[in-house]
Amino acid sequence: MSTKQFDVVVIGGGPGGYIAAIRAAQLGFNTACIDEWKNEKGGPAPGGTCTNVGCIPSKALLQSSEHFDHANHHFAEHGISADNVKIDVAKMLGRKDTVVKQNNDGILYLFKKNKVTFFHGRGSFVAAKDGLYEIKAGEEVILAKHVILATGSNARQLPGAAFDEEMILSNDGALRIGEVPKKLGVIGSGVIGLEMGSVWRRLGADVTVLEGLPTFLGAVDEGVAKEAAKLFKKQGLKIELGVKIGEVKATKKSVTVSYADAKGAEQKAEFDKLIISIGRVPNTIGLNVEAVGLKLDERGAIEVDGDCKTNLPNVWAVGDVVRGPMLAHKAEEEGVAVAERIAGQHGHVNFNTIPWVIYTSPEIAWVGRTEQQLKADGVAYKAGQFPFMANGRARALGDTNGFVKFLADATTDEILGVHIIGPFASELISEAVVAMEFKASAEDIARICHAHPSLSEATKEAALAVDKRTLNF
Ligand code: FAD
Ligand code: NAI
């Protein structure tokens, strides 16, 4: 039997890999995608971290827990009484698993539709030979002209506190806690810590987040971070900044964390479960990079240039396994751009307009530079801010926390950053991304007709605020 040969072989079927494979197939390449993720029955579960233990399941649980929170705390103001509201955690987790499976199946369907050959198993380099790459795809060996590596990332380990996914949890275990813990500890107040901490807090856990840095959400605009800290505290999320974690000890019943607080005083806290969310590390385990001499950088990420080219001819890498933000949409954009470059087109990813979203309540979303970055860069800017409290739709929703903030160049009025904390910030940010891609000015947004009543009117008003002429505040 002759060895199967492909124009493009993608290793990794997360958002970077599966989207790259689909785009390559759309462009007429004979394409294969290899992914090793297994579902609980050992079958294929493409979609990577994002679909299986990341974006999708976390948002499913955030939705369920938000319903529970609303039933307990917000229905009454609408005249709806809901006494004795209960949460069936097993059912909630089952629903989340169904949502994940729908996404896994959707990707398998898309592979069929686009004629992408799927291999379930590990992909690794065997050798480079005659201008082609020999690749092990599960049990088979196949040949590739171009290779796209999209092997993602894994949770960073805290030394001395290995994940057992029972008591000491990574994002994986944090998404399958079987009953609401009375006391939940979280190390790291980044995106995962806040999202997963919010899920279990809403369901009734007493949540303490221990953060190493002295500042809260340092990458977020200072005004937004300050508002978030105030609102999270009001919700009952305890956040301790500037701690130094010492010994972490787990028994079958509890986890004890010793740490020095911001003043240097020794503390000990006991939790029913502990989530460790202190960032993620690029994953190249099992790729056998030595066989072909693929270069990694000092962080263990695959070294790439601005076009996602590695040091090897016709080998590309995208997503969490390379530099840049670890976001699903960044991985997807890189996947599309690489497929287009292989086809001789000019695929491009604009790193300045990648949106960020933290799916807490209220949501936090931003694009472009923060006020503190503009100051550090010495850029003269104007700021405009509009509170949701003054927005009719937010009042009707009963969700008036937060604001929209515009930062525009002091001379040209070009939008340099938009920062939102408030309802549906994840959806509202798209308008700002479009505006920045088109190099719009704040005045452009201020002059555009926005539907009434809508939350997007707060965006328009914040743009008006840049010129100090809000109409409703
Ligand atoms: P991955 O999604 O990690 O996929 C890599 C795939 O490659 C995996 O299936 C893996 O099994 C497979 N693989 C690895 N090595 C091999 C090999 N040698 N052979 C075969 N297969 C291999 N991002 C957002 O933008 N929005 C969110 O809301 C969001 N929420 C998140 C929530 C959590 C809890 C976590 C952990 C992450 C979240 N992220 C979110 C980040 C997002 O999941 C990642 O940025 C994204 O999944 C990266 O995509 P990727 O394709 O690079 O890698
Ligand atoms: P993170 O980088 O967002 O946050 C990690 C936090 O842990 C930081 O605040 C850091 O200062 C702190 N930390 C690091 N070491 C520590 C230590 N030893 N002790 C105490 N604190 C420590 O990482 P996180 O939350 O693990 O998420 C990983 C990545 O996954 C994110 O950066 C993001 O790219 C992605 N993600 C995206 C989501 C989204 O887009 N909504 C949701 C969840 C994850």
Written account of the structure:
The chain folds into three domains: 5-154 and 281-349, FAD/NAD(P)-binding domain (3-Layer(bba) Sandwich); 168-278, FAD/NAD(P)-binding domain (3-Layer(bba) Sandwich), CATH 3.50.50; 353-466, Enolase-like, domain 1. The mean pLDDT is 97. It is built from 13 helices and 22 strands. Strands 1, 2, 3, 4, 5, 6 and 17 form a seven-stranded mixed sheet that branches. A five-stranded parallel sheet has the order 8-15-9-10-11. The longest helix is centred in the N-terminal third of the chain and has 25 residues, at 89-113. Strand 13 and strand 14 form a beta hairpin. The protein has helices at 15-26, 48-53, 55-73, 89-113, 171-174, 191-202, 222-235, 328-342, 371-376, 392-397, 425-437, 442-446, 456-466; strands spanning 5-11, 31-35, 117-120, 123-129, 132-137, 140-149, 153-155, 168-169, 183-187, 206-210, 238-240, 244-250, 255-260, 266-271, 273-276, 280-282, 315-317, 356-358, 363-368, 381-387, 403-409, 415-422. It is 31% helix and 25% strand. Helix 3 runs antiparallel to helix 4 (89-113) and helix 3 packs parallel to helix 6 (191-202). By secondary structure, the chain is of the alpha/beta class. Flavin-adenine dinucleotide binds at residues 11-17, 34-37, 48-50, 54-55, 58, 122-124, 150-153, 171, 192, 283, 286-287, 319-321, 326-329, 331, 359.
